[in-house]
Amino acid sequence: EVFEPERCVYLSSEAEEDLATTRACDQDVTPGPPRDVFILGGLVDYKDRPGVALERAQAMGVCAARLPLKGRVRLHHTSCLTTVAVMQLLCLHHDCGDWDRAIRTCPALYNAPLRKYVIWERPDKKVKQHLSEQQQQSS
Fold this sequence. Notes:
Layout: E1 8-11, E2 37-40, H1 52-60, E3 63-65, E4 73-75, H2 83-96, H3 99-104, E5 118-120, H4 125-138
Parallel strand pairs: 1-2, 1-3
Antiparallel strand pairs: 4-5
């Protein structure tokens, strides 16, 4: 055990709670260390073994959370993001502190293999403009 369980957040698409923030300084002031260690649960959530990451989090006594994609974006025919997409989302949110912006600007959601599965829930002007720019760059 390298990190205290109180510092860890196990990411799993099957968790009940959304991940509120990636920045320890934005979290509520609570006793104990900040939750600043993220475990990518998707690495074990295979099609034939759903829920494994959530079960591991519970067994380890670690907080579980999912990325707050609902109402922003969904994936057609799959519920799994690539590891690159998850890392990009975490890094983008850490930099800007805004999930809408992080999701809207995540390169992995606009490129293969995810691009064909992404369905934007709230396509606003910025998303449409970004998609248009991406299409122009690829032509």
